Queue: 4 jobs
Job 1
Amino acid sequence: MAFNGADALTRVLIDNGIDTCFSNPGTTEMHLVAALTRDAGIANHLCLFEGVATGAADGYARMTGRPAATLLHLGPGLANGLANLHNARKAATPVLNIVGEHAQAHIAHDAPLTADIEGLARPVSKAVATLRMTGEIAQATRSMLSEIQSGEKGVGTLIVPNDVAWADAVPGNLPPVEPPQPAAPDPVAIDAAAEALKAPGALLILGSPHITRRMQELVFAIATATGARLMGEAATARLSRGGGLPLLPRIPFQIDMALDALKDTSTAVLAGARAPVAFFAYPERPSELLPTDCRRVTLCPPQGAVEAALEALADRLGVSLGPLEAPELPALPEGTITPEALGAAVANALPEGAIVADESVTNGAALQPACAAAPAHDWINNRGGSIGYSLPLALGCAAACPDRPVFAIVGDGSASYTLQALWTMARAGMNVTVIVLSNRRYRILTNEMSKIGAGTPDENSDPLMSLDNPPIDWTDLARGFGVPGERAETAEALHTAILAALAAPGPHLIEAIM
Amino acid sequence: MAFNGADALTRVLIDNGIDTCFSNPGTTEMHLVAALTRDAGIANHLCLFEGVATGAADGYARMTGRPAATLLHLGPGLANGLANLHNARKAATPVLNIVGEHAQAHIAHDAPLTADIEGLARPVSKAVATLRMTGEIAQATRSMLSEIQSGEKGVGTLIVPNDVAWADAVPGNLPPVEPPQPAAPDPVAIDAAAEALKAPGALLILGSPHITRRMQELVFAIATATGARLMGEAATARLSRGGGLPLLPRIPFQIDMALDALKDTSTAVLAGARAPVAFFAYPERPSELLPTDCRRVTLCPPQGAVEAALEALADRLGVSLGPLEAPELPALPEGTITPEALGAAVANALPEGAIVADESVTNGAALQPACAAAPAHDWINNRGGSIGYSLPLALGCAAACPDRPVFAIVGDGSASYTLQALWTMARAGMNVTVIVLSNRRYRILTNEMSKIGAGTPDENSDPLMSLDNPPIDWTDLARGFGVPGERAETAEALHTAILAALAAPGPHLIEAIM
């Protein structure tokens, strides 16, 4: 077959190191399917729902630093992927969506699947482009790859009309994109931060799309040297931790706990972090969590060279990195699976190199703290708040890091959104351990209802927050998608089940009855 | 608690006969949950995924003619519901989305869940509005209810900031909406249609959001009297049929079959139908399915008074309605579940008053024709082409018509999109029989790839169309969501399983191995 537009697009992807595509194609993407699968250089993962594909692309890029592609079918296919693209956008993850469109002459006829694809893409995308002719494929794709990997990274949506995909084309042969490096640290900002951290009531807030171990070694030393307090943002796209690093405390999700934790802050130094804001607005509570008279000093913006800025700050302060006090593993838990027991069971089983996609919601309070004592691992948080992210994210992390054990720890409400991810994990034999926290309730709503001043759940409203009628059987759901499932009713059983899952290849699901 | 904005909105819904809400709420919707559940006049159905809620609202309105509400959580919640709202839009179904938004002062702080909700809503909505103060709730909601039920009906998205929901309010006390009746038939159009139908090669194409039995009695008589051919649109939002009515032939989905079926048409008379267009564009094939020199005569637009126009046309032609020849039931099928056997098994089991949400895709060729011989029933087609519609639609139909048996007949690829609908069916004990057509393949892509000129599936591309590794076990998935499941490997077993499902209350799932 002649070299066509789909081939030309694929060539640009390969030239730019895009080696993975998460797909749910349709008729309008068949030329793209042919081109993307013809070359052995691209791994193609079929997903049964588009929200799985977009979340997986997010996870892939969080672990590799490079975008993966998604292949989506027209406007409705993109629409199904939007919620996890929202999460990717808020995490500043680069993702390249390739969305098929009807042949251009067909669009005006308003066929059943015709939709405003650009309009659907815009709210979640940093860049949106519709290809009009094969001659612009190379430049347009390259520009988009550049844009989504520059400054604050983001989502790019490339819309490919079918006639552009099927028309004869010639290869573009442009050089690969070289995303610009973040600007060098600003000496004025370094000086200001160094000064600010010495003030009584100073707080250093660390954030970044990827908080590295080195960043933490630096901030722990800086905090010790200056006497400043230290906190991480409420959610981090990727946090490398464990293996002897102390726990990086987080700004709490819960509004009153967050206000209390920050109330004595006179000066906040922002290292790759934004000034913290409330997750939701509550009556009689502020949106900004720092006190109104708190001074804000930006060491480095989120898209800056955070690690280099911290190196310069440590240097400026004459800080030397000393030994750090490693946290202690909690004892092996027994009995009921409380949030504390969950944390202890996971922390005692987490192996070196693990990746944890954390969507533990109301049962997660003790999870991240307990796991600080585990061997070195990566922790993934949701920065966009749209639930149903962790199963797809875990899939993408496993595709990115096939030799590392991956965990998704997820509330039962959240897991119900994108459970189709289990099938793709099973298909590829990915080493993912899914722990579903089964409390048979949207517990967060029960907690939030009174906080937001809407009364307390009663016999009328409770049915919109409870998941116990009928109870969802997660072992059945897992088996349906080809994943072995087990139920754990005690903390001992949970710990044992995690070890068993790690010992056997392929994905496993554990339903932890909370 | 004081009467607040959420109460004021709920009052408008009740005053306008909105009695059903399909919900997946979050923190920003808690005041709406309290208000919507406080009054016993609104049935609230919790859905585990927003695409279930929006598809259910579509199904509800197709059967009742009245909109249901959805309650969705912020931009990402709406995003998850967009694909089925696309289908509702294409079916001209009135749906009212109520979407929570952050308190207005909070939006500028760009919290995790902040998103461009209006931007997300616009591509699928006929009307979008964001409430700014409690004083405008009654008028804005009433206007939206009017707009989505006037002319070509559609989707309305009402965005409710949390501070508008929680602020003190007074009831609006506006009179209920009275949607305008469609314009009376146009005598000039009646005359033109009557004349056109007498031409050799004339074709009457029938369409409407609801093709009633009366419309079919009229068009069969008109076709007989004039000698014109008769076809229905490729997909109908709701078609009342069976019980002695002859089969209304449909314009085929498959491009070459459609072109062949229409090639001798000299004059097309459009009764509530649009001039047919190809589902997709194909190389060397036209987008418009009627011959270029075919004359198009509009008897009545889709949003018009189709039945009245047909009455007037029959009158103008002096047609009298005679007895119609009832189709014959196919014999009870045996052996392998072929598409023909599927049709025969369902047709022989379909009870009086059944509602069938048809998403049978490539296995459905014989299904609708065979069921023409069944007792009177309603048939639901997808007019938007976004798959994952039939399980939510069936849920909505069951909520609308609790005393009627509802079927969802759905390919395994399509069923994987919104399988969470099973849980809500189980919770409410709805009488839905789900038949999953398990061919373990996106068969339509295998068929379409060569038609669209992208080659044939080979060892590289086939993994993006095949669902056999691992095989999905639909009985496990059903059980996981609390629905009894059974596998049928022969046509006899399928027929028996359908009868058993109908004999027992509550939902059932049958996995038909094709």
Job 2
Amino acid sequence: MQFMSDNAARVHPQVWAAMQAADAPDSPYDNDALSRRLDGLFADLFGRPCTVLWTATGTSANCLALAPMVQPHGGVVCHREAHIEMDEAGAPGFYLHGAKLMLADGAGAKVSPETIRAVIDPIRDDVHQVQPHAISITQASEYGLSYRPAEVAAIGALAKERGLGLHMDGARFANAVAFHGCTPDEACGSGAVQALSFGFVKNGGMGSEAIVFFEPGMSDMVRYRRKRAGHLQSKGRFLAAQIIAMVENDLWLANARAANAAAQELGTACGGRLMYPVEANELFVTMTAAEREALRAQGFSFYDWGADAARLVTAWSTEPAHVTALARAISAL
Amino acid sequence: MQFMSDNAARVHPQVWAAMQAADAPDSPYDNDALSRRLDGLFADLFGRPCTVLWTATGTSANCLALAPMVQPHGGVVCHREAHIEMDEAGAPGFYLHGAKLMLADGAGAKVSPETIRAVIDPIRDDVHQVQPHAISITQASEYGLSYRPAEVAAIGALAKERGLGLHMDGARFANAVAFHGCTPDEACGSGAVQALSFGFVKNGGMGSEAIVFFEPGMSDMVRYRRKRAGHLQSKGRFLAAQIIAMVENDLWLANARAANAAAQELGTACGGRLMYPVEANELFVTMTAAEREALRAQGFSFYDWGADAARLVTAWSTEPAHVTALARAISAL
Amino acid sequence: MQFMSDNAARVHPQVWAAMQAADAPDSPYDNDALSRRLDGLFADLFGRPCTVLWTATGTSANCLALAPMVQPHGGVVCHREAHIEMDEAGAPGFYLHGAKLMLADGAGAKVSPETIRAVIDPIRDDVHQVQPHAISITQASEYGLSYRPAEVAAIGALAKERGLGLHMDGARFANAVAFHGCTPDEACGSGAVQALSFGFVKNGGMGSEAIVFFEPGMSDMVRYRRKRAGHLQSKGRFLAAQIIAMVENDLWLANARAANAAAQELGTACGGRLMYPVEANELFVTMTAAEREALRAQGFSFYDWGADAARLVTAWSTEPAHVTALARAISAL
Amino acid sequence: MQFMSDNAARVHPQVWAAMQAADAPDSPYDNDALSRRLDGLFADLFGRPCTVLWTATGTSANCLALAPMVQPHGGVVCHREAHIEMDEAGAPGFYLHGAKLMLADGAGAKVSPETIRAVIDPIRDDVHQVQPHAISITQASEYGLSYRPAEVAAIGALAKERGLGLHMDGARFANAVAFHGCTPDEACGSGAVQALSFGFVKNGGMGSEAIVFFEPGMSDMVRYRRKRAGHLQSKGRFLAAQIIAMVENDLWLANARAANAAAQELGTACGGRLMYPVEANELFVTMTAAEREALRAQGFSFYDWGADAARLVTAWSTEPAHVTALARAISAL
């Protein structure tokens, strides 16, 4: 019974079906009929014009999304536990040609206008210090917290005031939208975000994420950067097909709701053990080594989180029976 | 009837089957059981120890393969019509942090020890000029010519003499092996090549190429570079599955033989129109605009190659009836 | 008797005097009174507004001048024997983060609208090929030829038409201006050039070149790039002092005239041996090994230029007696 | 009466004299007689073999020194207030092609084995996290504290144990040696440091720092990197001359002793106001705005250090009368 990672989850049958339907000759790269549908599909979803590029991974999505906002001599403000800082092997430094990540604080891996200002205000306006060019926030955060629409909007207002770009790492964007019951556009602060990495791989996809640019012109240079990074797959129609399958009929939302519901069920069982409120599909739970051992002995797999806690992750495909079993097992600890 | 690109070809049913068989939870990234099989699989295939990394595209495969050979201040000797020079959007400059491509001549986009020496011998051994660090050759070449094992070995001997790395862009490696009827190892000059980009996408795969390192230690740093480039897919088991399906039971070879046979049939029909011998699955054919128009009117699609020629590409899935039809149509021009 | 390089020439006494006059405490970096005079000084010299940054070397001047024009995924069209291609150790690849030099032909290392078009016109307007972002020309060229004002203007018109930046490597800009007897602005095509590397080191300076930006805003980001490249010297007042000494009272022009006159005297003696007209302070002269040996035996030092020629370079400080002696010796060969 | 920066200090007369003596034709770049003396000069000074390259600035010295130790996908552990992190405009990210600075704590901007371990021990040994490749320490630190020889040796032992390079930013190395009365080699932990940026500009030079490599082979690639960064000045003999003048007859030490003595005199006057012990030529002094105002009214110039403190810097050329005057003025506050 697997609660280790939503990356380990299965590919949704509708995604498989869409990929197989795409297996007919078409133009290579992103000149196929499916890839050309993406802009319109997301414009409908967000209710505002946008351009959309597919790429295989969240890391490349984040870095390519930041590229038009950040010069090599600039910086990106993000939380000190952000995925781009902790888990992408220095990819932003590579893609942004040496630009610097500027680390902000905030409970639950969420930044705020206050914690961002604490980073950027002390920077002298001279050529000796790296100047911030953009802000990157994670929706839902690395601790499973989801920014409220108003919180994103407030960060966006600060970004605008300071002339900074705003990027959202939406590896679990679907879970945040599902949690808040808001629209996708609201989850982006109603126009505050200029570039969104919209994740599908953790939510039923195989290997395709969408980079959504709301700022006109940004995607123009990113098309070159994507190819230059070796991410313009020649059979790109299979990436477009995955995304379309996820967006059409709101499969992305249904999957996220399933994962979130499983997380809520577990959260109720965890009670006071919870280190953070459950606002997506991840739980961070205080638990002794003996308790974790006991759960593993019952067949549950998950990651330790430091010495005294566990991380539990649900996915669209987590079996309800497994969830209920784990919830009972935790209650019984 | 499509003769535009092997990139537009279908995914082989055995590849589909292997991918679907992989759709069970396993460890993410490349810690799954399938990814761990690759080293052994290719060691058997080549008859020498090697380490193997998957990546989604030929461009990333080439650049990651070159990374351990080339310092940012060095250069890579390649043909002036090589894919890395002409068609990868400057990816080597990105992945190699500004390293320079040094362009050599040679008929049919094949370099030789002579044309390589013509590039590197005039370089002064001082700090004002970029020094070569590696050689990259394409097997089969951009004009569909396949290096003989002895030709690769001779280039390898030069590389060794000058202390240069040797990389092979094997986007159509299968076609070259099939054409020569040699072993994979012989097609690499029997140990001359240190890093091989072994292509599968054009030959029945979906989105997975193998980087094969024959030099101990090279893959260690490339594992970091692959992640840093956003090419470590979280559901990597699907990439490993594609490669295994292609290599097991020699599907790669069967597919290449089919594509080559189709190319030979067309080549016979083209006769004196052929600009280069047909040694893989690409044909470059002298043809007037009117002739091309006539063929297109009969339902054949292909790329123009300059003003007076056409490029025809066959694939594993090109239907024999289409091949025969095109052969007849060309003969009838 | 030294004719090897103008880099080996002495520092002009007026430059020494200005440096010593600058040896009083002032603000560090470029906040001193001298550095702040540069914009106005060059605006007067060129008759148009500009911003000016000092840097120690021609290589850093060229690369920093190109930085605001060229994105990492773009290219710079230059002559295939341009200094930035042949003699800067790949610095453009470093400073421009992997951007590509695109090599054009042209007699005497001069490009023209025709040879530039021959490079850029075949580039497909798609993401697979690096797109040109700028043109760089050398005034005077690597073979001592000086672009006519109209030639620069014509290249500028092409640049404008294609949306490309135009940079001039003016390591020997002074010699070109002196040769043509034109204004500095005319030597830049009367507004065609957006960024000029104005060289002083070969012309009586010690270690200071001026980067002159005629395009508003370009210098803003280059100030950061200069610091980031470690070229913002803390005692920058000594670099500013050198430039001011060279520009005030037209020392730069007087020095260039002296060097050019010496070159003309030698040119007359060389007669039919000249490989190129003498339009600056460099001569490329057909000469057998035995003849070169004979000259060296008489105490003249210079570089071989391939197997059958010599390169002779004059400088502001070349002694007239040495020039006359070499002219006679060549005539007597 | 200037106590703002040692960067604003004058150039020592012996340095001027040596530069002028170098003003005769010699081979360009670093092929001149003076540049070739440096290796031997520093081998004598340190009592161990080394290779030495000059460069104009501390920023380029630091970054070039780190280049052979740090791959683009690696990291450099340094103090979070280190000059390379705070004041070099992201130069390490540029020179090291995106490598990451990893920020350690420590009182007075000094790191220790403990604070370094606190940074590197939590890094997972997998490809998702940037791995440390080197450590960089500043001697004397950004707060004017000098590492004891045993402290450097202990950091070196940790570096060796973990396979990390060790770099020392010695912008004020002379002040540290003078303070401890140790040998230069002891100040480097008796062989612990592999590459040292030995600063002269703040200590009586004009624009020349020495990069000293104690590790055989490291300088080979840095020669290329220096040229590629535009730091190989064509009249390099003037940079070598400065360094030789500073090292011969121990001018560097005499100058540092003078600056340190001035700092000690001020330190005594500051008494309990001192935020850090005075171990070099910088003082950080608690002082109200009104007190600073009072000092400035008496003609003393210096930088504020936050809202409640001042930074005072002495130099080799600070006039004793000014020092005494400032000491008295502080005592009288």
Job 3
Amino acid sequence: MLFVGWGQLISFIAQTDRFMRKYLLPIFLGCAVPALVSAQQQDSVIFRQIADEVLTHSTAYDNLRVLTKEVGGRLAGSPGMVKAEHWGVAALKAAGADTVYLQACMVPHWVRGAREEARIISKRRDYTPPLNVLALGNSVGSGEGGVTAPVLEISSYEELEARKDEVKGKIVFYNYPFNPKFIKTFHSYGDAVKFRGSGASRASKYGALAVIVRSMSHGANNEPHTGAMQYDTAYPRIPAVAIGLQDADRLSQRIKDEPSAQVFLRTNCRMLADTIGHNVIGELKGSKYPDQYLTVGGHLDSWDVAEGAHDDGTGCVQSIEVLRTFKALGIKPERTLRVVLFANEENGTRGGKKYAQVAKERGEKHIFALESDAGGFTPRGFMMTMSDEQRAKVNAWRPLFLPYGIYDFDEPGGGVDVGQLNAAIGAPMAELSPDSQRYFDIHHAPNDVFENVNKRELELGAFAMAALLYMVDKSF
Amino acid sequence: MLFVGWGQLISFIAQTDRFMRKYLLPIFLGCAVPALVSAQQQDSVIFRQIADEVLTHSTAYDNLRVLTKEVGGRLAGSPGMVKAEHWGVAALKAAGADTVYLQACMVPHWVRGAREEARIISKRRDYTPPLNVLALGNSVGSGEGGVTAPVLEISSYEELEARKDEVKGKIVFYNYPFNPKFIKTFHSYGDAVKFRGSGASRASKYGALAVIVRSMSHGANNEPHTGAMQYDTAYPRIPAVAIGLQDADRLSQRIKDEPSAQVFLRTNCRMLADTIGHNVIGELKGSKYPDQYLTVGGHLDSWDVAEGAHDDGTGCVQSIEVLRTFKALGIKPERTLRVVLFANEENGTRGGKKYAQVAKERGEKHIFALESDAGGFTPRGFMMTMSDEQRAKVNAWRPLFLPYGIYDFDEPGGGVDVGQLNAAIGAPMAELSPDSQRYFDIHHAPNDVFENVNKRELELGAFAMAALLYMVDKSF
């Protein structure tokens, strides 16, 4: 863009920011808003106030810096998670919560141990660099001696079944590529993630010694992307790793070129006995119905090898920012706003389950639950699960959201953690739906770091969440 | 995101990709598309084909890697620009253009010389690091001895006028912050860029010796953002630099703390005589009206200190990708498609002016001109300048674009380069409108590099451009 364009740009402003001028200039100028403006005009003023507050005074980005850079990786049960809980309590108090407390729950305690190793064992004398792999969460270690075996490349479960007689004594290599044709990348994830989740037991059933899974990513680098897996207890538990995309291609090519090549794989992880974790909860007491609840949250745990910036540091700091913004603007929600930093989304959902269980036991009335766990990217809308009547209300708010680039309200959904509350007591729920294009470049990988979060994108997501909660509080 | 979410995700796919299933599954399954599907259903099939082609076989990202990493910075008149022209010719031929040629034009020839220097001159004995500055494009050098003078901080032209008696013998420091309240960051740019464009002459009028301009950015780093300026020939030409945001704050604080502090500033740039540059043009001959034109382009030049990745390497490779995609899918536009890599957007618009001038002289019939020069970020829509009738046609295509996240067609506009064609002969025009949140983190700064471009975001922009041109070709 050349500077001579600014005249043109200013004319754009004149034409497109009528909205702001119409509704806000009277306030800026100290005039009273006409008493008879419509309800939606009044809401648009509040939206603008929320946006201005978040875009100028947000503490979300600084909070995220501390969480990612000073706390860092924080898998459930790890010392990092204990530090993160302390961080959460302090951040919620600083944001102005009336009450901050911990809700204990048992969490899985999986430890990676020493970094995993993998390499191609070839009779050729050429050098092949190590394969960049990460053990999958919840998987077992290989033992000190590791596994050395030929590799069977498989691209679908149908192929696995068809070739089941070839599996015994092999390392099964699921090399199913992330489908680039889906526009929303979560659909590519949904399409591919089964190999990570159940691939080990499916292969173990036929005698495989270990599995290597192509990372669920279309990133341009070679980072391996870990994530949770689960064993079917009917079959032996075997080691399971994710492999970076470039090394997946290299391994695939090598076993074609040299069918006798083997892979050596050693993982050092193990599952210990469950331990204690905590949901970190901060409340802003409802002005009219204090015993009715609006929940907003993200998960505080992250994979051990990353800073957990987008997954899900951003969801945590955005949720805290909602509370801070309400306090700063003097917005007193009628219902009690609960910010929940969930204890264990990544490899057990125990935090979400505990929260739902307690809500059910106490007979709490939950009006709405909102989650942010799809990355701190520019918001485009919300995925929602609620009654048709509630959905119709949200749809009526589209004109309020559109000036902020938020237009996509049609996809059903809700987050994994608040999903537990929905399942337990039918609470209406939604999840922030940010632009998804960059998420699987960094998801569950060592490059999910603070530097890959953009301050404004993060803040616009927090704005969207605060604005939605503001509307829901007075409408549901 | 936890893997147990994949069942849920798959259900999302089932519910939201009905569009794709409805229109594309018949093709995937080898069945004939029913003969009586509506025109818009047929178009939706083509849209899906374009998206699939771009998302699976695009050469845009690789082209961009070569342009940014092997050619690099390429200001008009520089050796880099000559290399870039060779690159452009080769890339257009590789994409399948029928004809590739150069269109010569005279361009400004501004050279930076040795990197500029600035520092605070203090009577205190404390150490202050150098100020991170970049000379503004088209500005004059300070001379060997540089400028050493007290600093007058100014935050508006109104303040400049009010304090004009204080300006003489000073360095004027325009410290107007980038307004974070605009949702589309180009509006913040339009609001702030006047200080870069005309600030030097406005201050020179009252005897200033040089100007320092706060960078037009809300980035979190200290990169200075250069860009073009212009002198008013009525006043002496004085040096002008942009300063990084952190150093702008540091300078502001220091001159408050120590009013006698001065700044030393040396710039080594100069404007040489105009030289020859070229628009690089590739054509795909129209199947029905070869003497009618659709233009699609970006600008090939970039600032010298950056790789010109988002500004505007992405626009160039996206425009080339449109042509490649049409060829790959056997789409034969009725009108001649012209991909134009403009020679000199940054500091003169001479490429766009030349293209428009030749079109006018030859009486060419230009149906539409599309530009991409707002970054290679996820597309959200198009800014358009055209007749009401044409705008109504585009609005009718909204349902086709919405599944690709493209919904914003309401803002008027068009690019700086195709704007010349619009001005000269009234050609309808549009500019790709990508998400703007990250653009001013890197705009005109050394961090505008390949690594900050996401492959899928780039490709989705190319898809949007190809889809719009496909529709316009058969409808305008």
Job 4
Amino acid sequence: MSKFRARILVSLRPSVLDPAGEATKTAANQLGIKGLSKLRIGKSIDIDIDALNEEEAKKQIELLSDRLLANPVIEDWSMELLQVV
Amino acid sequence: MSKFRARILVSLRPSVLDPAGEATKTAANQLGIKGLSKLRIGKSIDIDIDALNEEEAKKQIELLSDRLLANPVIEDWSMELLQVV
């Protein structure tokens, strides 16, 4: 068994509105932060997982992301996978 | 003016409980995902900002993160900053 560490980033698809992000952008302007042209809020999930090999770890994380972490109708996800040595 | 792109990662401090992460971990086990030893959910914020230079962009993003994106009592944040060329 090897230990893997992954970070999964879940973001709204570009075509999907982000009301929380818009509200934060408005608040940032009121706070005096200049030049902000985009602000979108997504999720970042940090995972430690034991698996036989990298392929197996990827498979488990893909299942997890597709089924539990992201809503495929409105969200995309990407992963960074590291092996702990 | 230069264009900068930043990703801010906001995570719960290690000492703070993450009930959503725990619930997701339990659901993952029920789904048959093996070997998961850690699952913590945070936020990922993607930003485009115009600023005179890197230092100015960093200053604005630090203000934004400290005041609007993270709750410093229970959360830490980190940023990756890129200049768009």
